[in-house]
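Backbone shape codes:
===
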Amino acid sequence: MVAKFIEIHVEQLFATAGQDGTVKIWHKNGKELRTFPGHQDWVFSVSFSPDGQMIASSSRDGIVKLWSLEGEEIQTFRGHNAAVFRVNFSPDGQKIVSASWDTMVKLWSLEGEELDTFRGHKDSVWSANFSPDGQLMATTSEDRTVKLWQLNNNILKTVQADKAAVRDVNFSPDGQIIATAGLDMTVKLWSQEGELLQTLGNYNSAVRDINFSPNGEIIATAIWGKVVKLWRKNADGKFKRDQTLEGHNGAVWSVSFSPDGQMIATASEDKTVKLWNLDGEEIRTFKGHQGGVFSVSFSPDGKMIATASEDKNVKLWSLDGQEIRTFTGHKDWAIAVSFNPQGDMIASAGRDGTIKIWMLDGQEYLTLKSEGDAIWSAEFSRDGQMIASGSYDGTVKLWNLQGKRIKTLRGHSAAVRSVSFSPDGKMLASSDSLGRVIVWNLDKDLSLEGLIKEGCDWVKDYVNYSEGGLQMVSDFDLGCPQ
């Protein structure tokens, strides 16, 4: 199985790296020219030499390999003690650099000699790239730093990226703002182009969930520190602190606005759900779960709420606090719950690796299985015909209501905590536990050219992450088809 397009070198050829441990060379007309077997695990990265005559590959097996285009294995580079996530040639094609989860970067000659080991990162190294003149090298790491090195192993500069896990991502109702909430105790508002518009701070605890009111004028944020904070838009378009909702006895994990925007529901580890008005007054408390409540969602007509809990159950409630129904079937925590736009189905995501679709009468309509990995989020598309899920394995999956997996979106390197469709349904935002947010274009061509473009998008996402933040690079910058 081919995982993703990593690099396009020349006009006629491109290379792919696979979960099956192989590298493949393709002609742009879609013909597979050659398969390079040899790695014992997932191939993470593949790179052409500057003259296009060789390919370097790196794998989760901890090995780097050098290949001729005819498929001959020229050299095997051993020395890393963990997966090698990235490999690149120097601009003159005489050296190879490898970045590994063992926290080290290694420089190699083409003959397989280890020229140097660069130590300085405190966690997995995700990327290593040469400067255009080949005199410097930049590396990025899960320790949230970017380091600039001279090739004599001297660190010129260390930049603290100041990133933390992003727990939630959501679009504003008009689709123009993307909000992210994270463990860095801030909420960040971004434009679709990646510009940071505003940072909502002043938190003394991590932010777990974020939601816009239906009119986009209020933002509600759920805090690990037992409260919900509301932000209201000013005349200048900036959001200013408004109300604080206090009353839970444990971390607040989820917050949801009613469709008319007049009420807020909150779910907490204290096993309760609370209903509030916009003045911060508690209207009602819903009790019935035997474990913390991870997620709460209003029905489209605003007359019911659904909840998901670590007691493995999903519950349906009327707004007067009456428990209408309990949905049992998950074998582990029920982590997320959402209504379809029509209001006649509920989707729940579980740590048991399943998504369950329920009719409101309690009938289990469909079970979607995600190969055993916990699913942290699930949301219906705006037309209700598709479900997006975010998984512990770092993938985002799209499903239809017939139970078929339509597409697997790869690009995250950590658990995907949140997924959110744009209002027009053409984009999907996902966030992971390393603080990375990817905005996917769902309105695209699935032809060969479209798939090549997807590969370029993956590279852009990777470069953006490596440089720390929602920064945009163009197809032109990467030499990709426009």
The chain has two domains: 2-160, 166-443. Residues 448-466 form the longest helix (19 residues).
